[in-house]
Amino acid sequence: MIVMRKALSCQALLVAFVIAVQAHASPIQITVDTLLLAGVSADLAFDLTDGGPPPNTVTISGFASNGTLGSASSNCDVTGCVTGSFLSFPGVVTIGDTGFFNEYLQNIILGSFLTFSFDTTGNAADPGSSPDGFALYFLDPITGRPLFVTSDPQGGDALFHYSIGDANPLEVYGSDAVTVQATSNVVPEPSAYALVIAALLAFGVVHALRQIKLRQRMRV
Question: What predicted TM-score, i.e. pTM, was given to this entire model?
């Protein structure tokens, strides 16, 4: 009977952990197959557009490629919208919506792939405002125009668009030049770990009380 109760307690603990983990699903991992463009120079334009209050930020991390990185710059309506760089440790870039248009530009001689993760503050737009949007473009460094056409319905030839705070925020657009894959990495929030620790402590207390009662019965 005691063994069965322990098993049920462990199952309850596992359920609590799963629920806590599923409560938060970010960041998004983006991988782009650029084999057909290997050797081509491009500006990767990471754009955050401000649809209205409340404010949001996008954090880009884990950038990796077998291409060669060149210079980096920012292009903002208001100075200071970008902090960090892929070129310096720890290679994290944060873009804030200090103005309507906020952009981080990274020049690269493309290899066969590139990958990165991004996370957002996730604030949904106030009533009457449009959601903030995050997108990636491959631009010609000389003309500033997109290197290739995508199925972007807005006609800007973005590789993807992320509407911050929406229920289904991510749209990935097709292209003959590159292939884009996006996956959501489930990451537990600190509150999830707190829930698990609390459950473990509760399990330990219950187990200790049962052991005391069992010893008392054996003495009788």
Answer: 0.75
Residue 43 shares a structural domain with residue 89: yes
Nearest partner of 134 among 27, 21, 32, judged by Cα: 27
Q: 179 and 196 share a domain? A: no
Residues in the chain: 220
Assess whether 126 and 214 both reside in one domain: no
pLDDT higher than threshold 90 for residue 213: no
Q: How far apart are CA 100 and CA 133, in angstroms?
A: 10
Pick from 22, 16, 26: nearest CA to 165: 26
Query: Which residues constitute the domain of residue 208?
Result: 2-20+190-219
Q: Which tokens hold the place of 119? A: 């996370």
Same domain for 194 and 164: no
117/132 same-domain check? yes
Q: Are strands 57-65 and 93-96 parallel, antiparallel or unpaired?
A: antiparallel
Long-range Cβ contacts of 138-146 (<8 Å, 24+ apart): 138/37, 138/42, 138/43, 138/44, 138/45, 138/177, 138/178, 139/42, 139/43, 139/44, 139/45, 139/105, 140/42, 140/43, 141/41, 141/42, 141/43, 141/107, 144/43
- 73 and 157 in a single domain? The answer is yes
Most confident range, picked from 28-37, 183-192, 197-206 = 28-37
